[in-house]
Amino acid sequence: MRIGIYGGSFNPVHNGHIHLAQTALREFSLDRLYMLPSKKSPHRSMAEYAPDEDRLEMLRLACNKDDKLCVSDFEIKSDRVSYTIYTVEHFRREFPDAELFLLVGSDMLLCFDTWHRFEEILAQVTLCVVSRESGDLPALRAKAEELSKFGKILVSEAAPTVISSTEIRKKIAKNKDFACYLDENVVQYIRSKGLYSVRGEGKLHYDADDKKKYLKANLSVKRYTHSLNVADECRKLADKYGEDPEKAYFAGLLHDICKEMPDDQQRALVEESGYTVCREELETRSLLHGIAGAYFIKKEFGIEDIDILNSIRFHTVGRAGMSRLEEIVYIGDLISAERDYKDVDKMRKLAYADLNAAMLEAFAFSMKSVIKKGGVIPICTAEGYNFYTRLTKEKI
Question: What are the residues whose beta carbons fall under 8 Å from the beta carbon of 127, sequence distance 6 or more?
């Protein structure tokens, strides 16, 4: 028997997923293909996922027209991270005499050698790849050849159906038509359960509680406490200066989301982001997390509010012409409750008396600290200092 395994977040399952599954059944002559929604993905945050049981039920609805498509709750019920090697070992125990085929999309093949225990996976399965983007077959063939020393890899020549779960969620949240991307039963289920909808009439809902779960699981106690304190400070500053308190709280909460991420992962996010980054930022490890964090929340949480993204991108380096929210997060980070550096009380008083003066003081403080340590000053920081110096002089 030829058994296929296809895991993913399926958040929600869409026609592209089903096309890929049916292509695999046909192209690789599978007798059965098991689709598994993941509970805890090592590659994605859980913050924007629909509940486990809802994703499982949507998958059942999408698969019920094909007898060869089966749904497994193995990963949903697992109490640990959904590393693929654990799933492969599970199916090997379930089907000891079967030939196992692991189905992945093209984006996953290209980074497959970074997966946990990938050599062991390839020793136990035939890896089957179905394209998810037009024109990527040459890259897939090259990667398959590179990995072939570890095991057997098959690449389908079938044309892809390019659909993004992230884009579907955005359409649902903005009340745009999304029905053409999903099975009709899945569409009805989403509507009946109110999944992926933005609460409030046209106003973005800042789900801070949901993000706290992610932060608590991925930050040290000290860093998590700091994030909560900064969020509280940002809310108070927003109240003082006429900004949306909940938006400020949300941005402050997420400002250090990538602070304790491994250096190589931070740098990879920075390189992938497409943001303009100066040499001084790239050469200073402590500055990468702001850039990485802005791109991370855009990529993983679907946050596109440019003000929130910029407030995280520039919360360590600053820049000229910062928005009020950017200023609030920049200052909130410096005066949060646990800060105890010399003159912090002076900075706190200034922050609530004159925000522009506080920004100038903060830039001067930051630059003095960097120079004292023998570091380099990013161009945007120097420009920010000059900007607030001129702004302060103009007020006199």
Answer: 101, 102, 104, 109, 112, 121, 144, 147, 151, 152, 153, 154
Beta strands in 309-383 (DSSP E): none
Contacts of 80 (CB under 8 A, 6+ apart): 40, 86
Contact 245, 239 (CB under 8 A): yes
Which domains does the chain show, CATH number per domain?
Answer: 2-193 (3.40.50.620), 208-395 (1.10.3210.10)
Contacts of 110-116 with CB under 8 Å at 24 or more apart are 110/139, 110/140, 110/143, 112/143, 112/147, 113/146, 113/147, 115/83, 115/84, 115/85, 116/42, 116/83, 116/84, 116/85
Report the 10 Å Cβ neighbour count for 340: 7
Segment 281-310 shows an average pLDDT of: 91
Q: Convert the pLDDT of each residue in 239-252 to its tens digit.
A: 999 888 999 999 99
Concatenating the DSSP letter of every residue in 208-268 gives HHHHHHHHHHHS-HHHHHHHHHHHHHHHHHHHHHTS-HHHHHHHHHHTTTTTTS-HHHHHH
pLDDT in tens, 83-125: 899 999 999 999 999 999 999 988 888 889 889 999 999 999 9
Listed range (32-36, 185-189, 191-195, 277-281) with the worst mean pLDDT:
191-195
Distances (CA, A) of 148 to 88, 126, 205, 218: 18, 10, 47, 34
